[in-house]
Amino acid sequence: MNDAWWQRGVIYQIYPRSFRDANADGIGDLRGILGRLDYCASLGVDALWLSPVYPSPMADFGYDISDYTNIDPVFGTLAQFDELVVEVKRRGMKLILDYVPNHTSDEHPWFKDSRSARASAKRDWYLWHDPAADGGPPNNWLSHFGGSAWQWDPHTEQYYCHAFLKEQPDLNWRNPDVRATMYEVLRFWLARGVDGFRVDVLWHLIKDDQWRDNPPNPGYQPGAPPHYSQVPVYTTDRPEVQGIVAEMRRVVDEFAARVLIGEIYLPLERLMAYYGANLDGVHLPFNFQLLQSDWNARGIAALIDQYEGALPPGGWPNWVLGNHDNPRIASRVGLPQARVAAMLLLTLRGTPTMYYGDELGMVNVPIAADRVRDPLEKNVPGVGLGRDPCRTPMQWDGSLHAGFTSAQPWLPISDDYAVVNVRSEDDDATAILSLYRRLLQLRRSQPALSGGDYEPVATSGDLLAYLRRTRHECLLIALNLGEEPYALSLDPLAKAGRTLLSTYLDRDGEESNGNVALRANEGLIVAL
Ligand code: NOJ
């Protein structure tokens, strides 16, 4: 039975700071999202995932939380959040929140208490350690955001551990009070009607209890993020994490029909462990392979096969094409291939996650030095790690600031906004937005797409092809990732086929006999 909403449905990620500003401060907010729910519903997506909206000093734009059970005033109020839940559901959609368990803000009352004295009752809620013999950090662990993962606290004369910014101290998940309190946070939102969580850096929660040094990474290439210079064996994916994942799952299962999604950047075989030994882990360990692979047909064909082959029995697949931490797909592969990528994302087996604005073909926006906001770019500048380019405001129309805000937007608006925006693409039957809408409609109307089997079709060169089928239907998806036209023989699959959709949106109902002819950069869905 694969008919849970989170299996059949499509998830749409909203980065709230950048979706719509309703109170003219240049920053997106809940009212802004409320005013655009009809747009989300009209796309045909099933669930909205919001990046964090909790009170936060915004050192990492909401991934540094100072209160887990409230809404930051920059985004609105708890009452507006409750209204959002009602309005999302009224439109037949689900709401997924971000849950950030690895670290709090350094301004969270728990951390303030913890750092106030070694004798604090909350001291053990975080990872404190004496200096090494030379007075330096206890070991060689590195932060993802540059430098040591240890910060000296002169007041209590110990170091605390932070996998990200020093303003994001890591919680001690070995402490049972931390666990119990953080599970209450889940219940707080679940009881308010939230349909599930995307769990931030789930594979980071437990660190080695012997504080051993991470070994060097012999394959490290200069220019890669500095923490890649080590193999993080003692800081991530520790065996004890699995027990915590199972506990979180049990909490979520206290409520009917909720979903738990894990943010996990790990090689395939390790990723699969997060489904849980008995499928008692997260429902969906995010599959980021399409974000990380080169855009070529043979490589992608291989990774789909590897992923499908690695899934545990009963484990439901999922695919991600963009998020707030990675370059936009349209910039990675170019606009013609961004359409092919859309068809790939929405025809693979498993739950797709879309990133706001990708449906318009939004691109990475170059950020002038004086407008950089991302702490990662500030700490590790100039090597292309900054995430501001993929977080720029949603482009609603061709008016000032793209209809996102009436004030100065917190990040610059893309130069292309006069053309690349919802209003103008809505009026253009050939726009990528129209393609996304058609793909989402097809996914709803064709059980073979939302729940059918996946079967690769042998091809060569730049062509990627596969079947999606149920007992009654068989769809061929043929994607030309190259610049040359291509003829794909239907033999021995079928004698003829009927095109349901082309990425160029101009071949509906076309019959093919013997061969399917693909133009450069074209993707087709053909009913066999
Ligand atoms: C992963 C989030 O996606 C990213 O935006 C954030 O900076 C880190 N986790 C730290 O929370």
Keywords summarizing the entry:
528 residues; alpha/beta; TIM Barrel; Oligo-1,6-glucosidase, domain 2; Immunoglobulin-like; 3 domains; 8-stranded parallel β-sheet; 6-stranded antiparallel β-sheet; 25% helix; 16% strand; globular; binds 1-deoxynojirimycin
Let me know the CATH homologous superfamily of the largest domain: Glycosidases
The CATH architecture of the largest domain: Alpha-Beta Barrel
Say what oligomer this is.
single chain
Low-confidence stretches: none
CATH class of the largest domain: Alpha Beta
Number of strands: 19
How are the strands of the biggest sheet laid out side by side?
Answer: 9-8-7-3-2-1-11-10
List cofactors, ions and other ligands: 1-deoxynojirimycin
CATH topology term of the largest domain:
TIM Barrel
